[in-house]
Amino acid sequence: MTLLSKTLFCLLLCLIAISTGQSTDSNADRILGRWLFPKKQTCVEIYRENGLYFGRMAQISGSCQASYGNISNKVVLTNLSYTDNSWSGGTMIHPSSGMKFSVEMHMSNPNTLVATVYKGMKMFSKELVLTRQQPTS
């Protein structure tokens, strides 16, 4: 192989690697935004920081505030990473007790996020179905 051929080959490999990374980031970022908990009065805003995903309480219902106090902007999801069409390796923190649970998430469609929350063994888990909060105009 000539030097020019080797250089072009290396450039092609770099372009493929870069475009693959962007595709993964775009798929991973589908989780970004506000998600309503099952009772649909409280939502969490999921954001990205240093390649990991976090969630903070964004909108609190009156009954939630009565039960948990003012938890607005409290971080309740930490360190989720994206692999194979799901987000895992993270922790969900109970807003009042501070108890930590393992959490894994996947999207069943663009507006539905399924969170599996468990402590210790996954066979003793709870599934929460969150819906995307549509932006107000």
Automatic annotation (TrEMBL):
Q: Does the keyword Nucleotide-binding apply?
A: no
Domain DUF2147 residues, every copy = 33-132
Phylogenetic classification of the source organism: Bacteria, Pseudomonadati, Bacteroidota, Cytophagia, Cytophagales
- Put simply, this protein is called DUF2147 domain-containing protein
Question: Which N-terminal stretch is annotated as signal sequence?
Answer: 1-28
The UniProt entry, under Pfam families, shows: DUF2147
Keywords from the UniProt entry? Signal
Q: Which Gene3D superfamilies would you find in this protein's record?
A: 2.40.128.520
